[in-house]
Amino acid sequence: MAILINLEHICDAAVKVAKPFEIGNVGTGERRIIDILGGEISGPRFSGKILPGGADFQIIRANGFTILEARYAIEANDGSLVYVENNGVRFGPPEVMAKIKRSEPVDPALVYFKSVIRFETAAPHLSWMMESIFVCSGARRPDAVELSIYRLV
To answer: What is the DSSP string of 23-36?
Structure first.
């Protein structure tokens, strides 16, 4: 018996990012850190701005498969603060992954970029964000990451 899962679109994010800096090969792959400079969140259930100061911590394996671990904060339009942990993966053809690593434009249709996002907040009216599972589909741009965020219902 299959139990269906539906998706509720919560918001879209445009995350401004700095140029990556390379730590080097740490045994499990190439470690990169990408500072988050800010950005915007807008959607039917949640809107606000991404605050500067977070980062995306990445491991890029030899075949280009990338493990993503982003941590940052959002200030909702009403001033409430929300902490974000976004863990995912990104993978595509080798030539496309090489372009992403060089911060060059790529066609998002050529890249599998999915993640699970978790929110924490002290704002009572946003507690629903801590009571569900959220997934994202993403696209990497030369100076930004675009995310579409959905709640599993």
So the answer is: EEE-SSSEEEEEEE
